[in-house]
Fold each of these.
Amino acid sequence: MPGPAPFHAPYAPADEEIAAQLLSAPFDAERSARVEPLARRLLAAVRAPKGMGHVERLLQEYSLSTREGLALMALAESLLRVPDDSTLDLLIVDKLALGAFDRHAPASDALLVQATAFALGLSTKIFAAEETPRGLVAQAARRLGMPALRGAARQAMKLMGGHFVLGETIDEALSRASADDARRWRYSFDMLGEGARSGADAERYFAAYAASIAAIGAKAGSRALPERPGVSVKLSALHPRFEPLSRERVLRELAPRLLALARLAKRHDLVFTVDAEEADRLELSLDVIDAVVADPSLAGWDGFGLAIQAYQKRAAAVIDHVAALAEAHGRRFMVRLVKGAYWDTEIKRAQERGLADYPVFTRKAMTDLNYIACADRLLAAPRIFPQFATHNALTVATIVARAGDASAYEFQRLHGMGEELFEALLAEETGARCRVYAPVGPHRDLLAYLVRRLIENGANSSFVARAADVATPESELLAPPCAIIGEASRARHTRLPSPADLYRPLRANSRGVEFGDREAIAALLAERDAAPAPIAAATPSAGHSGVAPRELRSPIDDSRVGSVTEADADAARAAMAAASRAFPAWEATPFETRATIIERAADLVEARRGRLIALLQEEGGKTLDDALAELREAADLCRYYAGQARLLCAEETLSGPTGEANRLRRRGRGVFVCISPWNFPLAIFLGQIAAALVAGNAAVAKPAEQTPLIAQEAVALLLEAGVPREALQYVPGDGAIGAALVAHPQVAGVVFTGSTAAAQSVHRALAASDGPIVPLVAETGGVNAMIVDSTALLEQVVDDVLVSAFRSAGQRCSALRLLCLQEDIAETALAMLIGAAQELRVGDPRALATQVGPVIDHAAQARLEEYLALRRAEGRVLYAGAAPQRGRFVAPHIIRLDRAGDLREEIFGPVLHVARWRAGDDKDFLRLVEEIAANGFGLTMGLHTRIEARIRALAEMTPAGNLYVNRNMIGAVVGSQPFGGSRMSGTGPKAGGPDYLRRFLREETVTINTASFGGDAHLLAMKE
Ligand SMILES: Cc1cc2nc3c(=O)[nH]c(=O)nc-3n(C[C@H](O)[C@H](O)[C@H](O)COP(=O)(O)OP(=O)(O)OC[C@H]3O[C@@H](n4cnc5c(N)ncnc54)[C@H](O)[C@@H]3O)c2cc1C
């Protein structure tokens, strides 16, 4: 029988609607009466002096709301992966300096807490002898020897890890689990790791899963399901690009891998659970699962299962889908119901992506309420075996009270947590069962996992943390979620703005698209594909040009996109004259009107997204992701500058002596020449013009030669929004036309984005003019570096490097050009990076799965190829990807440098240079920064480290205008990361920043002597 239709449900429905449904569920007084007494008993067990588990004790001792708690987490997360002693010393000093560990006398007598406190306290006492971190290390090393200290810290971390990992290998875990058997726990083993970044990673994880299934199977005993052990798998571990836009590839490559593992699990009749990951992967996960479970080879096996997250608004729909799947295939599925482990990530991502609403609830009580509703749904589904994973005594008691037959479901807990809770439950509820989710893996991998669990459970909304805090009254812990919510209108957290309102009151957030929502993607593609054919011809707005039209060809496949008639000198002059004529009336237009017009342009950008995306792709060679990001940036810039204009253009009263009135006004300067590049043909083009216009200037805009069509579309859109025709002049043309505009006597200002050389020639031309001295706002290139030290999490580094260096085919001025890897981790990092780069798909950017599109034109391609040929001849190519032959494609490359200082020019394409640096002591780090700074640029810079002191040091001395720490270094968000550099990278002020608009305004003060007609009437009339 065929399975149900692919899963789909509204991605982020209104919280109030769901709350209304949940709150209206019939109330069963009898069952409810059972909840509280049981919950009370369970809570008492959790809170009993001996009842507290390791996590609870650790949280009690080092609460995450204390500096010590945070420092401990930070140390635990990174310590064991640092291979070199010198960096390790810096890390230890750095973290211990954050907390008062030396004064921390542990209240708990648990060995774990005592040992941790001892190791940390001992270390801090020693370090406290001197002031500077370097001095501390030197002092400590002299007196006691660092090895002893390092050893103590490592031991403390291993001890911590040992409590949460069942074994470093599956065999070790199995023997510990079997020793526990008498205590009635069932087990599900989980192979730790950070998810695959490369094909090799995916194979390694596959092999680890397969081996553990075989090992678990061999020791599984003879009991029947669900009494059998199991394994939990993460789909993100089985494929390096487990992401919605790579759907076809994931189905083709990942589904067979999952099927192979499921078959192995079936052979031993094990429980096989697919973990739940981020919300945007839900549809894709279910597509993979649908495909796998439909395979006839799995028929007759009831061990297949998946986790469902109750914090997701789609949880009920997922349960219905799984129930339909089980029905269609005539067998049982296991479903682990969790609340969800990625809540903070989901909130952040929805905000970043500008979604209409959150896919998860924003009040914890809503998650709790939904959890119970989902539990009811699971318990009512005949072909589902529910598994309730929670450490919340109230949730557990509620389920017990509602479920009836205890053998029809099981509870689950994490190894190292909830032991006392379930000991108590199993003791009093005959038939109740609990499975332990047991992480297996080396301590190095474990600690990152552990820290996530600790942060999640240490949050002050978490039941575990609140239960560990004796100050929290029982009544609060046991308050039923429906009572906390009360009514549907209270379903949302009041302090969390919706993603759309994130930047209010200044501006609305631009509308994004969730790639994990197939309906949203389909709508976007339909708009793109239905958009009327892109404009075929671009022409200057003023005057007729004598220049013959020039054909425009797509960088994707050289197909004809349209043509452009460029301006000649006459047309350029005519444009300047027309703009000059239009300026006074536009400048006299109230700033509120101007701001409203520019905001209307932002709305039009969003309304015309299909057409604009089509153009950005065909003319600019952009991937869907890039085109959408650019569209959003364009809308954000318009709204931001409109908001700034309202703040800056309102007349200000200034203070002064009595008897005079002082007023400050900011007004347009005149005609601004706006020259923009091809790499952001919409966002930068529109951003420059919006700033000029909203400030009251007339604008004469020259787009890049490569992208005049998208620019013409932007001009049309501004005119439609209400900009007077003459106040905005469109002048397509080459550099000579740009130079003619800049040299025109009517120029009141120039805003330029492009190469450093071109900016310098604009600067020279303006300086040579005998006319008024006019401002130049220039944003140019950079040789942007990222420094990585050995405390960094390499998986995170690899993600950020790939995006920073290769997204947009490296054609962003912010792009990463120079990666500086600490030599101790360089080999490993490079191997991971190359493995991940191999997974990038280079090709037609209109295809969803493409990550790297073409470079802009033949000249760019030839320049890059020539550069790469030279590096190849020098034997410096560490990695060369593959790219299509047809079209303007350049494959991603990684080039080896001897030193960071060797890169002196901006290579504008998908070419990443890598240099190693030695970290003997902290001076090496500072020397490296100086070496990078010596290239003369100052645009963007990245740093991956867990050493706070290093972050502070770089923030002080960075030459870059934009420093990004522990993240990627592109995609500056308007108003959050105002963009632009200094030195050879530009003049400032930063685009999308609070000072940008000022450069487009002239300031006037008006001072009136109000006492001129005989006296200061106001002063004299002043009352006592
Ligand atoms: C055996 C087992 C397996 C697990 N497998 C997975 C898995 O595959 N995928 C996964 O994502 N998680 C998984 N988890 C983690 C699980 O999601 C968390 O442990 C769980 O959410 C904690 O819930 P609780 O009932 O123990 O604690 P509680 O303290 O009652 O709930 C905490 C949870 O509430 C939610 N929450 C917190 N604040 C808010 C808020 N403001 N608004 C809305 N919701 C909020 C979050 O989900 C948070 O984790 C698993 C847990 C266990 C025990």
Amino acid sequence: MRQSDTILITGASGMIGSALLRKLQEESYPHVLAPPHAELDLRNTKLTGEYFARHKPDRVFHLAARVGGIHANHKYPGQFIYDNTVMQANVFEAARKSGVRKLLFPGSACTYPRLAAQPVQEKELMNGLIEPTNIAYAAAKINGIIMAQSYAREYGMHMIIPMPTNTYGIGDNFNPEASHVIPALMQRFHDAKQKLLPEVVLWGSGSPLREFIYVDDVAAAFIFLMQNYDLHDIINIGTMQEISINDLAGKIAEVVGYTGKIVLDVTKPDGTPRKVLDSSRLFDLGWKPQITLEEGLKRMYENHFINQSPIL
Ligand SMILES: NC(=O)c1ccc[n+]([C@@H]2O[C@H](COP(=O)([O-])OP(=O)(O)OC[C@H]3O[C@@H](n4cnc5c(N)ncnc54)[C@H](OP(=O)(O)O)[C@@H]3O)[C@@H](O)[C@H]2O)c1
């Protein structure tokens, strides 16, 4: 990626998009386009095509998507599959027609089969049934992955497809209808601290193992891959560090300063016992994450609850 390149980020107001925009600004890339959703709705084929034809970006990070936790996925599967499928089809086709040199499209860890062998290697994609609670989102992602690879094969486009693990950090979604586990727990511990509640109840045994990566590390990995990776084979982005939900809750409570009890409601179901990506292909290329879970949680809590500073 050269300083003279015109770089387009779709979804630049989102969690990962805004981290990427901050990083490209820090690295002094002068020609970065970041159209807001209100200005460019990527579900609109005509507008998307016109935008690409007018600006002729060299590099595209297609990060706009409809994203959410189990609740949002369960309640709005039609919107998840429609918006994501149409957006990526519009963006890939507009990129093809306008001659984009390289395009990054993220898949996601939750695109892998529910019972994939752990740690999950890239070859596990489509090697089993998808988790039913997020099937519409994952099906749209799989469509996007195959579409990107098909465009690479037929039209010779440079398409790269990283698969980030669960991402958290500044700009995360705290809306209870859409939030993932870290912002949801952070909000609950914060509220419990404010209300002086003696305990917070967690669903399940607390034993399932999960992996989390800080958003600035994902943005850094995207830039690294844009510069150093030229295959259209998917590639995992994770930390290869696992933590149980119980230990995660303990760390979040500590960052928040909640000193009450954490009680496990073992009558409630656990999710999959272990979900961690094998990121050794990326590590072997020379990239590693830099931000520990403790540091990332601290930055996130301070930004959202203490400084209340804008993301950009
Ligand atoms: N978060 C994770 O844990 C994770 C993990 C793996 C992969 N990913 C992938 O990484 C990408 C970015 O995720 P994120 O967490 O940063 O998502 P996010 O915070 O929800 O941001 C999504 C972005 O897409 C924009 N957008 C949504 N619908 C749009 C439309 N119709 N037209 C134009 N823009 C639209 C949103 O703008 P408005 O807010 O204005 O609507 C927002 O800027 C997604 O492809 C996601 O699947 C995320």
